[in-house]
Specification:
With 392 residues, the chain is of the alpha/beta class. It contains 12 helices and 18 strands. A 7-stranded mixed beta sheet has the order 3-2-1-7-8-15-16, sandwiched between helices. Strands 10-11-9-14 form a 4-stranded parallel beta sheet, with helices on both faces. α1 packs parallel to α11.
Length: 392
């Protein structure tokens, strides 16, 4: 019998709960014990080994069984909760009370901040909890620390999720299909207001370093123009194109999607607030800035709509349900085969697994040459033979 820990880190996406449920059902049928680690890596960082109160311990760690997860797959998000905590990069003001004064290595993060590395504490917590195998479900940040755990000697099997679909090494991450489905639905709904008021609609979508959600949503919804993270935008050229689109539309409106991580030519990505444990600041607002500039240049009235968390809210669509369930089955198969340091993946339409170190070996971005017209700021999809289902 194995004692298996499961955690979800980073942003929530539809499909996490069904994935957890399938892991629990498969594990319980095989006689294994499942422990849910709450709030991502924070659950291990903030767990106090000396805490005697059971209720306080269950704030961070909870036993899982079929009865407890029986209905969780009917909703989106993650009932285990999540965080963007990185135990290897902890700012001084974020150190938990029980770790104050405990010696830990100090280094400088990508933002030049002094941070503490409490990986040794995390390993002690896992040993204290009797965790034999760890299954982190997350994006490249969460799984990057999972890969660190594997290098430290922990048995790890990873599951990729992120609505941006940008984990390197897999064609698909849990949450992407639902995010695109939501985006297409909201874009079409917004047409009624854009057309009624004869305006240019600017729809800002999530997408930090990859513009895939903006590109694919625009492609599927028939949006006039799409600005993606990979290609800086000349707003004057964009304004000309949108005015032409508006005139050519019998209803006298035009629509634009834009990734939150996009930027203007010679401009900067719009970031606000304090950087998280992975060095990321909060993105958002480029659509509003672009809309204001378009209004100044064209004299046209603008509708600005930031879809944001609505992209990742609610229950998963059927594709995310299927991939989440199948990734869970694959992860458990790897556990039972004793194959650790692996990440489940989809490549060229086939389920497979890869070495976790692959996550750190590259970055996944839109194939601009094949899929995007950099002069016209719109999807350019012509040749799809031999390409993955989602073109990325």
């Amino acid at each position: 019998m194995l004692r298996i820990g499961v955690l979800t880190g980073g942003g929530d996406v539809p499909g996490l709960n069904p994935c957890i449920k399938q892991i629990v059902y498969r594990a319980e049928d095989a006689g294994h014990e499942i422990v849910g680690i709450r709030r991502g890596w924070a659950g291990l960082l903030d767990y106090d080994i000396d805490e005697k109160d059971k209720e306080r311990r269950e704030k961070w760690v909870m036993p899982l069984n079929k009865q407890r997860v029986r209905t969780v797959d009917r909703t989106g998000g993650t009932f285990l909760h999540t965080s963007r905590t990185n135990p290897g990069n902890v700012l001084a003001d974020s150190v938990p009370a029980h770790l104050q004064g405990v010696d830990a290595p100090i280094h400088t993060d990508r933002r030049g901040r002094e941070v503490y590395d409490y990986t040794e504490h995390v390993l002690k917590v896992l040993e204290h909890l009797g965790i034999d195998v760890l299954i982190p479900i997350g994006g490249d940040d969460t799984l990057g620390y999972g890969e660190r755990m594997h290098r430290e000697g922990m048995k790890v099997v990873a599951i990729p999720k992120t609505m941006d679909n940008d984990v390197y090494g897999t064609d698909y991450c849990i949450g992407f299909s639902t995010a695109v489905t939501r985006s297409v639905e909201f874009i079409h709904n917004l047409r009624t207001s854009a057309g009624s008021h004869e305006r240019i609609a600017v729809v800002e979508l999530f997408g930090r370093n990859s513009g895939e959600t903006s590109l694919i949503a625009a492609y599927l919804a028939g949006v006039d123009r799409a600005i993606i993270s990979e290609v800086p935008c000349d707003v004057h050229r964009l304004a000309e194109l949108l005015v032409e689109d508006k005139k050519a539309n019998p209803s006298n409106y035009a629509m634009l999607t834009i990734s939150e991580g996009a930027r203007m030519v010679e401009g900067e990505v719009i970031e606000t607030g304090e950087a998280d444990a992975y060095g990321h600041k909060k993105l958002g607002g480029i659509g509003q800035i672009t809309g204001a500039l378009l209004k100044d240049i064209t004299g046209q009235n603008i509708i600005y709509q930031q879809v944001a968390y609505l992209m990742r809210s609610g229950a998963p669509d059927s594709l995310d349900l299927m991939v989440a369930a199948n990734y869970a089955q694959m992860a458990m198969s790897l556990v039972e085969q004793g194959r650790f340091g692996r990440m489940v993946a989809l490549q060229r339409g086939l389920y497979t697994d890869i070495n976790m170190s692959t996550i750190m070996q590259g970055v996944k971005r839109v194939n601009v040459a094949e899929l995007y017209d950099v002069e016209q700021y719109r999807p350019k999809v012509r040749h799809v033979f031999g390409m993955p289902m989602f073109l990325m």
